[in-house]
Each structure stands twice: as C-alpha cells, then as structure tokens.
Amino acid sequence: MATSVRYLLLSVFVMAVVVVPSTAAQSFRPKALVIPVLKDSKTLQYVTHINQRTPLVPLKLVVDLGGQFLWTDCESGYVSSTYRPARCGSAICSLANSDGCGNCFSPPGPGCNNNTCGVLPDNSVTHTATSGEVATDVVSVNSTDGSNPGRPVTVSRFVFACAPQFLLKGLASGATGMAGLGRTRIGLPSQLASAFSFNRKFALCLSASSTFEATIFFGPGPYTFLPGIDVSQSLAYTRLYVNPVSTASAFSSGEPSAEYFIKVNSINITDTVLPLNKSLLNIDSGGYGGTKISTVNPYTVLESSIHKLLSDEFTRQAAARNITRVAAVAPFDTCFSTQNVLGTSVGASVPWIYLNLEGNVSWTITGSNSMVQVSDNVLCLGFVNGGSSPRTSIVIGGFQLEDNLVQFDLATSRLGFSSTLLGRQTTCANFNFTASVS
Ligand SMILES: *[C@@H]1O[C@H](CO)[C@@H](O)[C@H](O)[C@H]1NC(C)=O
Ligand SMILES: *[C@@H]1O[C@H](CO)[C@@H](O)[C@H](O)[C@H]1NC(C)=O
Ligand SMILES: *[C@@H]1O[C@H](CO)[C@@H](O)[C@H](O)[C@H]1NC(C)=O
Ligand SMILES: *[C@@H]1O[C@H](CO)[C@@H](O)[C@H](O)[C@H]1NC(C)=O
Ligand SMILES: *[C@@H]1O[C@H](CO)[C@@H](O)[C@H](O)[C@H]1NC(C)=O
Ligand SMILES: *[C@@H]1O[C@H](CO)[C@@H](O)[C@H](O)[C@H]1NC(C)=O
Ligand SMILES: *[C@@H]1O[C@H](CO)[C@@H](O)[C@H](O)[C@H]1NC(C)=O
Fold first, then answer.
1. Residue with CA at minimum distance from ligand 6 atom 10
2. 252 lines ligand 4 (CB under 6 A)
C-alpha cells in the first residue's frame, strides 16, 4: 500500500509539468473560459456543448457537477486522428488515479486497446458505472473576458474516459456522455485550470430555459450578465467540505467523494428556525449525512425528518397568509392553490427559506426557487422526500440553483453563492453569447 501511494504522488508531480505544455504553442492565453448550458425540458438535465477530436466534433454532454471526469461513448463512430489511449503505468494513468491495466477483446479502436488503464465512468442519473479506457484527445472551448465569448482555445491532450454506448441510457436525447466538474485531478475544472494556468475556480449559473443559454465559467471573474452586472463582485462565501467516502456508483475503497459538500448549520423559514436533528447535518465517518450540491437531481432532496419539518412549517406560514393547501402532485407532497399568491420579481410571494451556512452566511431561497408551477392553479414546494436514511441528508438540486450563481474555488475550498439574481435584475440566461471581436 505505502509504495503504491508514493508512486502515485511522484507521478502526479511529474504530470503537472507534462500537461501544461500541451497549449504552449498558443501565444494567446485566455483569462477564463465559458461554455453554454441548456436545460433539457424532458429529463430536466442540464446539457452543455464542448468540441472534441480532430477534426472537431461538438459533443452534447450532461453536466454532472460532482462527476469525476468527462466520459463519452467511444463505441458509436469515434473518429479522430489525435485519440491516444493511456498506456498502463503512464503519467496520465496516475493522474486519472487508475492503477488497473486492461485488455480489450473487440476490434481495436478508440475505447478498445490493449495495455491501457481504465477508470469507472459513472452515469449518475441512473447510478450505473462500468469500466472504460482512459485516453486523451483535443478539446476546444471558447475563451471569455467575462462579458462575451472570445476566440476558441484548445487543450491538445485533454484526459477523458471512453464508455460503452449502453451507459448513455437515461441521459437527455442526443447526449453522448457527461461532463464531470468534480473535485479530481482530471475533472474539467482542474484540467482546464492547469492547461491555461488560471486559478482552480469555476462558476455555474443554471437556467430553467431550454432556449436561452446559461453558462459555466472556468477561471476567475468577472462573470458579467446583461445589463452589465458582474456577479462575481457580490457573492457570500462558505466552506467546501470533502466527504472522505466516495459517493460514486462504483469506486475503490479509500477514495474520497468528488462531489461538493457544504455545511448547513440550520434552516429558517422567515424567522422560525426548524428544530432539525443536528447529527444529520454532519458527514459521519461512514460518509453518511451532510449537504451536497448536485446538477443531476432536478429538485432538492431532503432526509424525511428534515422534509417533514420544512413542509409542515412552510404550510403553517402559508396558511397564515391564506394560501390553501391542495392535493399533492408527484414528485411533490406539499402543494398549494395559486389563489392569494401574488407574483413578485423574485417569484411567488411565499415565506422565504434560509439555509444558514458555515461562516454565518445565509442562502436565501425565494419563491422563484421554492415553488414549482405544476399547473395554472397549483404551485408545489419544490423539495422532495429522500426517505429515512439517505446517503446524504440534503442534496441541493437543479431547481434551487437556477438563476443563482455558484462559484467553486478548489484551491481555497470555498463556495461563493449569489442567492437569486432575479432581485438584481438579471438572470443566468443573460450572458451575452455574441462573440466580441478581439
Ligand atoms: C489484446 O490481446 C489479446 C491477447 O493477446 C488479443 O486476443 C486481442 O485481440 C487484443 N486486443 C486488441 C484490441 O488488440
Ligand atoms: C433565522 O431565525 C432566527 C431566529 O428567529 C433569526 O435570529 C435569524 O435572523 C433568522 N435568519 C435569517 C437569515 O432570517
Ligand atoms: C438523529 O439522527 C441520527 C443520525 O441519523 C440518528 O442516529 C438519531 O437517532 C437521530 N436522533 C433523533 C432524536 O431522531
Ligand atoms: C385571510 O382571510 C381572512 C378571512 O377572509 C381575512 O380576515 C384576513 O385578513 C386574511 N389574511 C391575510 C394575511 O390576507
Ligand atoms: C452573523 O451575521 C449577522 C448579520 O450579518 C451579525 O449581526 C452577527 O453578529 C454575525 N454573528 C457572528 C457570530 O459573527
Ligand atoms: C464559441 O463562440 C462562438 C461565438 O459565440 C459560437 O458560435 C461557438 O458555437 C462557440 N463554441 C462553442 C464550442 O461553444
Ligand atoms: C453583446 O455583445 C456584442 C459584442 O460585444 C455587442 O455588440 C452587443 O451590443 C451586446 N449586446 C447587448 C444587448 O448589450
């Protein structure tokens, strides 16, 4: 065990030098990068586009905030003159944290080579994982000055994993893999930061729109949205935690989770504090409990006792405003008539929910992120019951993230969050995707 750990650390150190020169031929060094994101209205997944291969092909990938790396189907017509499988024992294998060595018994080609190392690509929507070859190929992404996309830049040896076609089952129509933004050395944030020597920071700004593109930025701010609002200037910060036990569908023992955890200390509805069982809010030694952020859960999922306290107190305060509870509409159990609910710039006028986070900061959830309109007359509280002993007590999901910018700083383990941008007269779909001439 001890020798294998030393070997890995040494290889990682060497690798940091190997990865960087892959872009050395380019004299232009971007300050940051931007990729577009759209919500798939059928699956409620968030989908991005990244160009890969030689010649470049646009890949449609489901965004997986806690995913370990980029994986794509190499079985269906992968054609590229720059595809390179990772040979066993190579620096790329160490970077990918892969000590397995694989052979393949189908015709050779991308995803099927002998003496290559493998990882476990994970479809986190269906919780299915399988083994796949580690490889590198060209990836191209647009640079940005924070206000518009700029010229495209390429990473010539971007590390990813090949997956069989069946792993795509359950993903948005046309998606050919997942873009893992997790906390690993081959997650997109770390690879892009090291390729272009910028801080290991990225920001996610999701939108409910399936027409107007929302954004993910890699690198530091500004993150400017029309009409000229730099959201990076007004974030509140809390600590990011590492769950010591992997939350992937398949993993080796001792592997930490690549997902992003934060610490909720308490939850308020207006100024009433919910009497939560505090031990659910900590990550225990088995990796259970705590709070994470996820883009593959369409709505926030709460452990059942937390869910009940939230629903009951919300219903009580709604009743005090003459808002009537009506029959449940799955997957929600707490629904209301729209009668007596006024509209405001930050969504339906309902009691606000506050997640009080480590660092004495509160994430404010207004009607725009708490109420899901399920029909003309019915609004439901957009939190679902996760049962009595889920792996993670609070999973903050996509609906609660929409029109909120969240910035992940891997170097300082810090999460910046904006709460709703609607109160600041902008939205996550307000990035100006018209290229600037520079
Ligand atoms: C890998 O090696 C095995 C055994 O030598 C051979 O049968 C197989 O065809 C090889 N696979 C590829 C993809 O070259
Ligand atoms: C939460 O409730 C407590 C107790 O009433 C109050 O002191 C605190 O200000 C509330 N927090 C927020 C963010 O409203
Ligand atoms: C609080 O949660 C912990 C962890 O799930 C559990 O062991 C304990 O029984 C709970 N306490 C109460 C009072 O429900
Ligand atoms: C709720 O309805 C009752 C009866 O119609 C009315 O007296 C009261 O003022 C209403 N309360 C609010 C907060 O609108
Ligand atoms: C937490 O923040 C509130 C308002 O920002 C402030 O009044 C309070 O003193 C702070 N508490 C601590 C312990 O820093
Ligand atoms: C880069 O930006 C240009 C101009 O907005 C756009 O046409 C192109 O699709 C973008 N490329 C990618 C990969 O998003
Ligand atoms: C978007 O950016 C382009 C290029 O800089 C600029 O010409 C255009 O006016 C911007 N659009 C808006 C609405 O500001």
1. 142
2. no
Q: Does residue 142 sit in the same domain as residue 215?
A: yes
256 SS3 class: coil
Query: 304: CA distance to ligand 2 center in Å?
Result: 23
Name all residues whose Cβ lies below 6 A of ligand 3.
Answer: 277, 279-280
Q: Which residues line ligand 1 (CB under 6 A)?
A: 103-105, 108, 112-114
Q: What percent of the chain has pLDDT over 70?
A: 94
Residue 280 half-sphere exposure, CB side, CA atoms within 13 Å? 21
Ligand nearest to the CA of 273: 2
Q: What is the pLDDT of residue 99?
A: 77
Q: What local confidence, expressed as pLDDT, does residue 26 receive? A: 54
Helix (H, G, I), strand (E, B) or coil at 244: coil
Q: How many CB atoms lie within 10 A of CB 316?
A: 12
Q: How many CB atoms lie within 10 A of CB 108?
A: 10
Per-residue model confidence as pLDDT tens digits over 103-114: 999 999 999 999
Say which amino acid occupies 217: F
Kindly report the CATH number assigned to the domain that includes residue 48. 2.40.70.10
Which atom belonging to ligand 6 lies closest to the Cα atom of 35? 14
Choose one of 222, 244, 259: the last residue of a domain: 222
- Note the pLDDT tens digit of each residue in 309-339: 999 999 999 999 999 999 999 999 999 999 9
Task: Give the N- to C-terminal CA distance of the chain in Å, as an integer.
Answer: 52
Q: Which among 222, 241, 268 is the end of a domain?
A: 222
State the closest ligand 3 atom to the C-alpha of 389, by its place in the atom list counted from 1.
5
Range of the domain at 128: 7-222
Same domain for 313 and 342, yes or no, is: yes
- Lookup: tokens for 335: 């629904």
